[in-house]
Amino acid sequence: MKAHDILSRQEILQLMTKNNLRATILIMNSWAWVIAAMALVAIWTNVVTIILAVLIIGGRQLSFAILMHDCGHNSLFKSSKLNQFVGTWLAAAPIFSDMQTYSRQHSLHHKDVGTAKDPDLGNYAGYPVSKMSLFRKILRDLSGLTALKFWFYILKTRAQDNKSMVTNIAFCRGLAVNLMLFLSCYLAHVPWLYLLWLLAYNTTYFLFLRIRHVGEHAAVPNPLSRNMFENTRTTLSSWWERIIVCPVYVNYHIEHHLLPSVPPYNLKKMHNWLVAKGAYKHTPLPSGYIAMLRSVVN
The dihedral of CA 118, 77, 265, 64: what is its sign? Predict the structure, then answer.
């Protein structure tokens, strides 16, 4: 089933319309949450506020990964140059990622999803899993072991001649932006707040990234179907889930695969139209990420 089988040409054109103001608000909102979380800990430093800040910052770091993804699709801003700049420096660099490298692999995911050639298959092929297996994965994320594996991967790829140039440039951009984050904390006379960013990046960020991958394609009705309503999942979300585990409308994943060029801020409208047209009549639609996680364990 394709988008034009459900939506009219006029509806598709309306959904694909980009809005620079709404895109800017998404970027600013993500950074505002980071600043607010750090400010909360600076004003009331205790275990509760630190845990809350690490959850919020990890969720915002996930939002940067998603915004990088959207800029890679050239779907966030009207201007390709603006998508390139924002995606590279304000979204990818803070989380030590590279938009160009990610986009090349991600384009193959869109091309091959629903087949054994999908490069992202490793993120979800093993599901459903036992409750104990899922618990161990969560524990690895929160203990920093997943992050440690990531850092070893970065060091390994930097040592490979055929990849070192791109990886080194991306890593240097990441260091530059993270240095600016630290200096901002230092100039505010609270340099230790930068540790919240590092702690979140090495724990909750990887947990929320895992939940994102699981929510998108794990244990779907038919992972080897070419029908997006069978090989992909959309999950309804609550307000608190949108802060941490599914920011920037990433939960509307069937919609994204149907029309990858639709800006994230239009995905909810697209979802409502699809529901009204009966497109979800035979498709599971979990109410929240707890319900989604329950559906991927056996």
Answer: positive
The reply to whether the predicted model has a pTM over 0.85 is yes
Measured between alpha carbons, how far is 21 from 263 in angstroms, rounded to an integer?
Answer: 12
Paired tokens of 106: 């991600």
- d(C-alpha 67, C-alpha 87), whole Å: 7
Q: Is the peptide bond before 128 cis (omega within 30 degrees of 0)?
A: yes
CA distance 138 to 4: 39
Residue 220 CA to residue 229 CA, distance in Å, equals 9
Cα–Cα distance for residue pair 201/108, rounded to 1 Å: 27
Cα-Cα-Cα-Cα dihedral of 53, 186, 170, 210, to 10°? -10
**Distance between CA atoms of 17 and 186, rounded to whole angstroms?**
41
Task: Please name the residue that has the structure tokens 């089933």.
Answer: 1
Token pair 């050239």: residue: 74
Name the DSSP class of 248: T
Asked whether the predicted pLDDT for residue 169 surpasses 80, the reply is yes
User: What's the helix, strand, coil split of the chain in %, to 5?
Assistant: 70, 0, 30
Give per-residue pLDDT as tens, 77-116: 999 999 999 999 999 999 999 999 899 999 999 999 999 9
How far apart CA 73 and CA 109 sit, in angstroms, is: 12
- From the CB of residue 22, how many other CB atoms can be counted at a distance below 10 Å? 14
Average per-residue pLDDT for the chain: 95
CB-CB contact of 270 with 252 (8 Å): yes
CA 264 to CA 272: how far, in whole Å?
Answer: 14
Reference 147, options 78, 205, 195; nearest CA is 205
Which pair of structure tokens corresponds to residue 174? 């990441």
